[in-house]
Amino acid sequence: EVPNVPAVTANIGMEYRWAAKPFGLPGNFTGRVSYQYVDARAADVKNTFDLKAYGIVNAKLTWQHNDVSVYAFANNLLDERYEAWGQAFGTLPTVRVGQGRVVGIGTSLQF
Prior knowledge:
The protein is mainly beta. The protein has strands at 9-19, 28-38, 41-42, 50-51, 54-65, 68-75, 83-89, 92-97, 102-109.
């Protein structure tokens, strides 16, 4: 098998938009949730061992009015500790763990 190339990867997402007026704000809110799945795959060229399959959830909430938006996001929302990369040093398998939860805020201006 080709290293780090899963047989199956999949992404699915949902988005919902609603008016911000009930909150006393102009503009709109958008909520987005996505799920990414990566199947098991060989870790190295010798196919010494396989990396486990994993799935992560990402979420984002955005407020937008005219050309300005403000958002909060969480990548890897459930803090999944997945096997991102692997290699065998002789008979010793080693694995790099993927990035944990990342939470942040931001803004965007369009002109």
